[in-house]
Amino acid sequence: SMAGIRPVMITGDHKNTAFAIGKELDFCSSEKQVISGEDIDGLSEKQLIKKVEEVAIFARVSPNHKLRIVKAFKKNNYIVAMTGDGVNDAPAVKEADIGISMGISGTDVTKEASSMILMDDDFTTIVAAVEEGRVIYSNIRKFIRYLLSCNLGEVLTMLLSSAFSMSTPLLPIQILMINLATDGLPAVALGVDPGD
Questions:
Q1: Share of the chain above pLDDT 70, in %
Q2: Residue 114 pLDDT more than 80?
Q3: pLDDT at 78
Q4: How many Cβ atoms sit within 10 Å of the Cβ of residue 75?
């Protein structure tokens, strides 16, 4: 949750089995956070949209339930990542914003429907992928901010000198040198900055 990610378990296992595993993995603390496919059938779309906010484990679910769950999370403005390996998982994996399939045990249908394939079938690989993605995103923002602030300084210098009818403060060759030496290299360094 500190990383802004909320994991939920969707399983075909019995409610009690799912709760026991969820408790061990620190997914949930009470049985109120567990819902079965039978319970989902008794809920309307609006009720399910509200219910998914408090549920941590979905047990005894069918492929149709998985699809409904993904849609409900999306209606709550979540960016949804869904993992799956079987043919039955393909519709929900396709519907999710980020479909994740298993490279070893996953079926070809699910792999085709997904946007990311875990080559080692290890759930913790997702954590590493998220971390790497966030580092890249952060570096791109640093890179762009630095270049914009540098170029803004040059543009303002030229504009103010023109406004006050001063002589040209920077020659084209000087601007080129500034861009090469003080803009380019530090920006490249920011682009390959390690994550903090």
A1: 99
A2: yes
A3: 95
A4: 13
Tokens of 152: 């803004």
Query: Among candidates 104, 117, 6, which has minimal Cα distance to 52?
Result: 6
* CA pair distance 142, 191, nearest whole angstrom: 7
* pLDDT above 90: residue 138: yes
| 87-88-91-93 Cα dihedral, nearest 10 degrees | -80
**Which residues are 57's β-sheet partners?**
9, 34
Answer for the pair 103, 118: CB distance below 8 angstroms, yes or no.
yes
E strand or H helix at 113, and its extent?
A: helix 108-113
Neighbouring C-alpha atoms within 13 Å toward the C-beta of 192: 5
What DSSP state is assigned to residue 110?
H
- The conformation of residue 3, written as its DSSP 8-state character, comes to T
Q: Tell me the DSSP string of 36-70.
A: EHHHHHTS-HHHHHHHTTT--EEES--HHHHHHHH
Percent of the chain with pLDDT over 90: 61
Task: Please report, in angstroms and rounded to a whole number, the separation of the first and last CA atoms in the chain.
Answer: 18
Mean pLDDT across the stretch 39-46? 93
- Structure token digits, residue 1: 């949750």
Tokens linked to 61: 């679910």
Longest CA span, the chain? 80
Three-state DSSP state, 9: strand
Quick one: pLDDT band at residue 94, thresholds 50, 70, 90?
Answer: very high
